[in-house]
Amino acid sequence: MKVSARNTFSGTVSNITKGAVNSEVVLELKGGVSIVATVTNGAVTNLGLKNGDAAFAIVKASSVIIGTDLHDAKVSARNMFCGTIATIIEGPVSTEVDIEIGGGNLVSAVITHGSSMKLGLKVGGHACAMFKASSVILGVA
Amino acid sequence: MKVSARNTFSGTVSNITKGAVNSEVVLELKGGVSIVATVTNGAVTNLGLKNGDAAFAIVKASSVIIGTDLHDAKVSARNMFCGTIATIIEGPVSTEVDIEIGGGNLVSAVITHGSSMKLGLKVGGHACAMFKASSVILGVA
Amino acid sequence: MKVSARNTFSGTVSNITKGAVNSEVVLELKGGVSIVATVTNGAVTNLGLKNGDAAFAIVKASSVIIGTDLHDAKVSARNMFCGTIATIIEGPVSTEVDIEIGGGNLVSAVITHGSSMKLGLKVGGHACAMFKASSVILGVA
């Protein structure tokens, strides 16, 4: 399987909370970092997900918000990764920003050119990437 | 009503599962294909949705992930359509990919230029479009 | 905190409905307009959100759909703002559209160039911006 989504993270399912429609699934990555995903119960059943299973998280670059000065940010987005800006690709409307978050992992975001200018993003600068649990797709090999 | 979202699908509501906050709504399209949407209970009430109602699903192109070699893919995304790539429009950051999924229907996706290159997408090639139930907006005429 | 998301709205929490996994939070803005957000229960707990709290809503421009002739539209998207198109920035694939919704507030959307053409959007024209409750990130200062 090859997908267009720029961000994939491999880990182990460490917790599943089931509601009537959706489930919250926590995926523990190497190094103790976790990703929180909300998917439908049907998806949990289809994938046969249970604690301890190997799984991966897929996140589209367009679902990722870039922030700076987020040290004391209090936001509802359950997933946040901070690091160093590795690449910036500018277009007339959209800008792609890739952040190195350690361990050779990159998080890619597509934001507006206007936001990129406003935030003053530069390669080598510090920035954080955040995304909602509802933006995460889970997969199993 | 005219909306910017590139993807609209007409169908009939075939199932509604209500939770405390969200409902899962299944829309059966012509030919037996289904689309799964999660919307708030408030939306179900506002629209007066019930089984057998005609409704349509709206999906933004930016919510759609393109994949290849997805034949044995196991992902949580509840909606997947496969077909032939009809159009590719390249930009410096973003690329639009339109997939013909039969019956004259197109699914449009906006992905990064980098992903398009990585996947080696070409007009006439086979590809699949997938999107989460939470990315679907429902409407009634 | 500075984020790339183009749309932020300040308001007061006026209602929280808790489910097993997600909560629906209503944020009342000045002038009586409301924004509906669905976030995980974990996020509500992390932020300590309760009725009467000041909070803000963050929405990525890529989550916003632009519509015209929406006066009698019936869609599940819980959030809709109408006004006058203030800016259009065209790219080969993406187009940014900014709508003035009164009180000096702007809502920014990134849509495809093709949709912008199809809708015939022009600066000074009337249009509406809509987004799902699940696209909203909440924050507190």
What's the SSE blueprint?
3 copies of one chain form a homotrimer.
Chain A: E1 2-3, E2 7-18, E3 22-29, E4 34-40, H1 41-47, E5 54-59, E6 65-68, E7 74-75, E8 79-90, E9 94-100, E10 106-112, H2 113-119, E11 126-131, E12 137-140
Antiparallel strand pairs in A: 2-3, 2-5, 3-4, 5-12, 6-11, 8-9, 8-11, 9-10
Radius of gyration of chain A: 16 Å
Q: DSSP helix count of chain A?
A: 2
Run of helices and strands of chain A: EEEEHEEEEEEHEE
| Fraction in helix of chain A | under 10%
> What sort of overall outline of chain A do the alpha carbons produce when their principal axes are compared?
elongated
Number of strands of chain A: 12
- Arrangement of strands in the largest sheet of chain A: 4-3-2-5-12
Task: Report how far apart the termini of chain A are.
Answer: 9 Å
Number of domains of chain A: 2
Give the CATH topology of the largest domain in chain A: OB fold (Dihydrolipoamide Acetyltransferase, E2P)
Poorly predicted regions of chain A: none
Alpha-beta content class of chain A: mainly beta
Fourth-tier CATH superfamily name of the largest domain in chain A: RNA polymerase II/Efflux pump adaptor protein, barrel-sandwich hybrid domain
User: What CATH architecture label of the largest domain in chain A applies?
Assistant: Beta Barrel
Strand content of chain A: over 45%
Biggest interface pair, residues each? A-B, 40 and 44 residues
CATH class of the largest domain in chain A reads: Mainly Beta
- What is the multimeric organization of the chains shown? homotrimer
Largest sheet of chain A: 5 strands, antiparallel
Mean pLDDT across all residues of chain A, rounded? 93
